[in-house]
Amino acid sequence: MDPLDRLEATIRARRGADPATSYVASLTAAGRAKIAQKLGEEAVETVIAACSGDDASIVPEAADLIFHLIVLLADAGLSLDDVRAELARREGVSGHDEKAARTIEGKA
Ligand SMILES: N=c1c2ncn([C@@H]3O[C@H](COP(=O)(O)OP(=O)(O)OP(=O)(O)O)[C@@H](O)[C@H]3O)c2ncn1[C@@H]1O[C@H](COP(=O)(O)O)[C@@H](O)[C@H]1O
């Protein structure tokens, strides 16, 4: 199994565990706003790493970011498969073309 799928399965399994022994459970118990806050913090830490001049330092921050994103998806009853499906839907559509279509449709 892909490590991300394995991590997702672990996160789902740990959501209902004892918060004293599980970070996933304690974060889940803290609620959606706390999960979102942690995700934001990890995003900022990834940005800081991106600008630090030490590209290798992006990797652990990206791992923290993805971990917390999966915790959020699980909390919302969503999965990596939902994200995969959305990315597959976008496949082959240039971001520039998609944005231009939005403007034409008056959705910008
Ligand atoms: N991949 C991860 C993972 N990545 C990051 N983290 C935790 O995410 C937390 C966030 O980092 P911070 O430094 O911001 O934490 P903090 O400062 O203690 O948090 P705050 O007090 O500020 O809220 C840390 O406690 C990290 O250990 C993770 N915790 C768990 N996992 C995976 O999830 C599995 C289940 O974990 P438990 O639920 O703890 O059993 C583990 O076996 C791992 O595979």
Considering the chains and any ligands shown, give keywords for the structure.
single chain, 108 residues, mainly alpha, Helix Hairpins, 2 domains, 6 helices, globular, binds phosphoribosyl ATP
Task: Lay out the secondary structure.
Elements: H1 3-14, H2 23-30, H3 32-50, H4 58-75, H5 80-90, H6 95-104
Helix pairs in contact: 1-4, 3-4
The structure holds phosphoribosyl ATP.
Outline the structure in words.
With 108 residues, the protein is an all-alpha fold. It has two domains: 3-77, MazG-like (Helix Hairpins, Orthogonal Bundle), CATH 1.10.287; 79-108, no CATH class. Helix content is 72%, strand content 0%. The protein is built from six helices and no strands. Helix 1 packs across helix 4 (58-75) and helix 3 runs antiparallel to helix 4 (58-75). The protein is globular. The termini are far apart. Bound molecules: phosphoribosyl ATP.
CATH fold label of the largest domain: Helix Hairpins
Summed up, the domain count is 2
List ligands, each type once.
phosphoribosyl ATP
Which stretches are low in confidence, meaning pLDDT under 50 for 5 or more residues running?
none
So, the CATH homologous superfamily of the largest domain? MazG-like
Specify the structural class.
mainly alpha
Main beta sheet, described? none
User: So what's the overall shape?
Assistant: globular
Summarize the structure.
This protein is an all-alpha fold and 108 residues long.
